[in-house]
Amino acid sequence: MSNEAATATTEAAPAAEHPGHGLGASLPAADARAKTEGTFPYAADLWAEGLLWAAVLRSPHPHARIVSVDTSHARDMPGVRAVITHEDVPGRDSYGRGTADRPVFASEVVRHHGEPIAAVAADHPDTARMAAAAIMVEYEVLDPVTDPEQAFEAEPLHPDGNLIRHIPLRHGDPDAVADIVVEGLYRIGRQDPAPIGAEAGLAVPRPDGGVELYIASTDPHNDRDTAAACFGLDSDRVKVVVTGVPGATADREDQGFQLPLGLLALKTGCPVKLTATREESFLGHTHRHPTLLRYRHHADEDGRLVKVEAQVLLDAGAYADTSSEALAAAVSFACGPYVVPNAFIEGWAVRTNNPPSGHVRGEGAMQVCAAYEAQMDKLAKKLAMDPAELRLRNAMATGDVLPTGQTVTCPAPVAELLQAVRDFPLPQLPKDTPEDEWLLPGGPEGAGEPGAVRRGVGYGLGMVHMLGAEGADEVSTATVKVHDGIATVLCAAVETGQGFTTLARQIVQETLGIDEVHVAPVDTDQPPAGPGCRGRHTWVSGGAVERAAKMVRTQLLQPLAHKFGMSTELLQITDGKITSYDGVLSTTVTEALDGKELWATAQCRPHPTEPLDEAGQGDAFVGLAFCAIRAVVDVDIELGSVRVVELALAQDVGRILNPTQLVARIEGGVTQGVGIALTENLRTARGLIRHPDLTGYALPTALDTPDIKIVKLVEERDVVAPFGAKAVSAVPVVTSPAAIASAVRAATGRPVNRLPIRPQAAVVTNSGPYGQ
């Protein structure tokens, strides 16, 4: 096997012939050229006349009482224009994505390592950093609560207490039992979203006393409203302009990063720029919830699941953020895409003095997937059954019922997906000779001997929900304008790398037959479109664009239909031409426009959901997406090192809107899952983040990326979704870590109950020849 195998390759059935525009085409991203040439304007590139530079002083302690803060030395430094603390916050002094419990600046108590204490604006970035370091803070250091299990009995860390949410899910007969029982304890580490590029922003004061924030926001209207409340301003006096977002796998910009920026601009009357170091990003923004999971599965002798019991404990860190939503997903999907007639799940999210946790792709669902798939492996071993066969016997399908009592009405081809990856040919084993060039688990020229390598094959089935849940009002607004043969889309859906701007262009091309389509930059002068997560913008914002485009289409066709005495439904637009069903009418879109300016605005709002009740029951989710992955790994059982050889994936996608873009999203999700499984772990020691940099936090590189084989994409349209499409990037993230852990279990016989997989978990003392 050559080193070329270290780069990702994707195999799928060849796409049918398709025109170069509209839905179903692989239309390239509008910003692809600028990004590859290095001319794309990121937030860190911003500049303004009279610019000042900001720096933030952060707590070196995870838990402490603030005795005093002396800013006099910083204020007296030449070049310093302003120093602000909690006393300088004119409005609401706290914020949060889900719950507003996080202070803009700590005032009395520090609750996590890196919590902001003060901020400085100066005429040079070095001056700002030195001034921040010159602020004298006297702390009374307190013992941190870092074990989430201790949070139940510990003194309250916050006025709201330590318990954020408890969900006791009850489904079926509590007395149900079965002959086969397996138990397990599992731990999932803390992952960081590790956004590409520096987190940066620019705040510019306005003549009316307001401020404009130029930031790489993924939820600009929420950020605007939060900022306005903290600044003591009306929302119309704060404007958020979205600058180039260099990719996002979670909320891209920490609100605690934005707020000091705006406060300093308002105080100084000058533009202020803040560019966070990588260390500040690790300290400031939220991470994936570390999770402790206890499971007990009951099954009959044929391998049919009878009951699942579980306890799920999420470590929310110092503040609530979106922990309530993450817990709802974890509890609801704790049994996985399997038919479970009886389920009893206890879920808690608690505050600790660890770094804050929040929204990261696949939150809640990823943690439980790793645990329930480990349980399925244990059941298969105890029953002496093929792991894939056991999963097939319990696979969920459309019409089955979730443990929340909600009926699965969307396409759920779980068995079909699993069969596809199970039947896909396995990669060949390399010969057991040192002369052959192949990749050892330690990497190219890796340590260890080929004779110590064992190959394992494992499976993972995962599921995620799309859009918000539990009654969240998911709505988006879009406007489509046509003038001089050019269409423009105005929608506040932020392009974070998920491809929305490309999709919006394709929708308008398909609906109106206009090739040249522009998507306007995003700011909060436009109506809100909501956050860019969980496939929202494909569904809700794409739906709004489609409705607006169809309204413009009607305006375009009505005069022609009236002239020829037919309805607009009898006219069609194809390749820029308008034709009637009988061939009598044939003209071009350009001729029909004849210099007219047409526009329409529309909204899209999916069907409502409801909160889970006191027994964890309710129709909480709009839609679900599923994925099956078969992992093949090589493990050096002497060193405990792991190399993922191949990941074969099958996924239900509803409808393929852009084949190239879809493959890229799946590959990105799978690769992120490899990092979760093997390398990514933001380590802490008594609440202190260790090595907050990209040396201590190991992201997967191209050499860590396996062959990715997309063996099947099931296009069974979800009838309630616009275009019938499903979100594609989150469910591979959820599924691939579980599949990799399953393969390592198969190779070593070890339990592998922790992610990321530590070397000692894969070491075997007694072993046989290669591949056994």
TrEMBL record:
Biased composition (Low complexity): 1-17
Domain of life assignment: Bacteria
Start and end residues of each stretch annotated as Disordered: 1-30
Residues annotated as domain Aldehyde oxidase/xanthine dehydrogenase a/b hammerhead: 37-143
Pfam families the UniProt entry points to: Ald_Xan_dh_C, MoCoBD_1, MoCoBD_2
Alphabetized Gene3D superfamilies for the sequence: Aldehyde oxidase/xanthine dehydrogenase, a/b hammerhead (3.90.1170.50), Aldehyde oxidase/xanthine dehydrogenase, molybdopterin binding domain (3.30.365.10)
The protein's name: Molybdopterin cofactor-binding domain-containing protein
Provenance organism: Streptomyces prunicolor
